[in-house]
Amino acid sequence: MIDLKGKVAVVFGLANKRSIAWGIAQKLSEAGATLAICYQNERLQRDADELAADLPNTKTFRCDVSIDTDIDAVFEQLKAAYGKLDIIVHSIGFAPNIKNTVLQTAREDFRIAFDISAYSLVALARVAQPLMTDGGSILTLTYYGADKVFPNYNIMGPAKAALESIVRYLAADLGPSKIRVNAISAGPIKTLAARGISDFTSILTAVEQRAPLHRNVDQLEVGNAALFLSSDLASGITGEITFVDCGYNATGL
């Protein structure tokens, strides 16, 4: 059994009980970690507070990762509350007007998608590094649409591809500090973000039909993988993309 007692984990991107971030938070909490859950804005605060109340030793903090002063402020709060950090979970992705094809994507929409979905990991890692005094784990969430074209995933595909490259470069940058950086490529899950993808059910159906396990994953399965990658059992793993998609990525036709 993985034991994270004495470890402090910060989870960014929790929107509601369907969030992948929530599945990860539950598993880290079950392993004994002290949790800080970060939500984007006041509109999401009530859900975050209600969910946090179900987990022991859990506090909530507001942070909009597109605003540097918000990031600086929340890490000052985290430093005051915990002293040091051990685990950072980045479960964030957004693209405005995602229904537009890549060809139709406006310059400003491109900038926002890459800023929030990819650059935010850089911004968080840079401020987290000084507080991860004993090393630790930084983990983000990606999707197979970074490698292959999926209908209606559109500009999020290139944004996730950028995120995966950032994982590798951050792993190199932070390795001397004994901080590991990895990503989980989760199969499709009915999250709040997934609602913005047109005909999302067709992707769910395709995975169920073609994946070796002939089903889709759920948040807690992603949470189990995150727990492993956040623990000392994964001490030799960094710069990697780990698929948790019932084997779908391994299939052809």
Automatic annotation (TrEMBL):
A single MF term (Gene Ontology): enoyl-[acyl-carrier-protein] reductase (NADH) activity
Residues annotated for substrate binding in this entry: 95
EC number(s) per entry: 1.3.1.9
Protein name: Enoyl-[acyl-carrier-protein] reductase [NADH]
Protein source organism: Edaphobacter aggregans
Catalysis: reaction(s): a 2,3-saturated acyl-[ACP] + NAD(+) = a (2E)-enoyl-[ACP] + NADH + H(+)
One family name in Pfam for this protein: adh_short_C2
Keywords from the UniProt entry: Fatty acid biosynthesis, Fatty acid metabolism, Lipid biosynthesis, Lipid metabolism, NAD, Oxidoreductase
Binding positions (NAD(+)): 13, 19-20, 40, 64-65, 92, 160, 189-193
Pathway: Lipid metabolism; fatty acid biosynthesis
Active site: 143, 153
Class of enzymatic activity (EC top level): oxidoreductase
Family to which the UniProt record says this protein belongs: Belongs to the short-chain dehydrogenases/reductases (SDR) family. FabI subfamily.
Any single biological process term in GO: fatty acid biosynthetic process
Keyword Lipid metabolism: yes
